Amino acid sequence: MTGPALGVFIPAYNAAATLPAVIDRIPKDLWADIGTVTVINDGSRDETAAVTERLCARYPKLRLHNFDRNQGYGMAVRRGLGFCRESGCEYSACLHADGQYPPEKLVLFLAHMRRHRVDVLQGSRHKDGTARAGGMPRYKIAAGKTLTWMENRCFGLDLSDYHSGFLMYSRRALRSIPFERLSLYFDFDLEVIASAQALGLRIDELPIPTRYAGEKSYLNPVRYGFRVLRVMARYQLGKYGDAAGAFRA
């Protein structure tokens, strides 16, 4: 049985103020191709769950999944990918609940993945050089360029951004990558790229606009930086190369 063309999930933590706009920005014509849009409420302390329930009345394909307590970004993404895998969707997409990444790009990304048989498609804030115009702080641009240079050398890729979190996945990627063995922290997305490269999946990127508007970040940059280095070291040691069992702690 063929599943829907697209499954969408939204990790959400204390996102009551921004989530409605993200849902509203999903292109109207795209809803026909979407199976479900699942909000993964990661133990929010605000009205994220209540806001989502109200939105469900307007959007019949919207679903809510609650974690009783905060379990971390990686666990929320795991659960969302699990729902997409279970639905049998052709492609899946991760949107962020703070509105920083563009739901409007889903149509273009879906068409690009189909046309070029891409397995993991990353939205790049740097590919068209728009990061600074979109309000990204200069120190983040500098740090990102340094990490990207190191990551390209490590993974043998030529990407301009590894850290946007705006990712789409093919059904092949959902079946090949053992997401349940990856990080619970924000380096989950980088581990996805490392896994896809090690497993011979096709990785690509498309530009996305950058939008910084005072959103609250729960990412500790120092901790994240060390975890990025850890992912690169693990990749060099061959820890991501075998979907059957090489993903070891």
Our estimate of the beta-strand percent is 15-25%
Radius of gyration: 17 Å
Shape: globular
- The fourth-level CATH homologous superfamily is Spore Coat Polysaccharide Biosynthesis Protein SpsA, Chain A
Distance between the termini: 36 Å
Q: What can be said about the biggest beta sheet?
A: 7 strands, mixed
Counted up, domains total 1
How many extended strands?
7
Average pLDDT confidence is 90
Structural class: alpha/beta
- Please report the number of helical segments: 8
Q: Any guess at the CATH architecture? A: Alpha-Beta Complex
CATH class group: Alpha Beta
N-to-C order of helices and strands: EHEHEHEHEHEHHEH
Poorly predicted regions are 243-249
* CATH fold naming: Spore Coat Polysaccharide Biosynthesis Protein SpsA, Chain A
Binned, the helix content reads: 25-40%
Structural topology:
Blueprint: E1 6-12, H1 19-24, E2 34-42, H2 48-58, E3 62-67, H3 73-87, E4 91-94, H4 106-116, E5 120-124, H5 138-155, E6 167-170, H6 171-176, H7 188-198, E7 203-207, H8 221-236
Parallel strand pairs: 1-2, 1-4, 2-3, 5-7
Antiparallel strand pairs: 4-6, 5-6
Helix pairs in contact: 5-8, 7-8
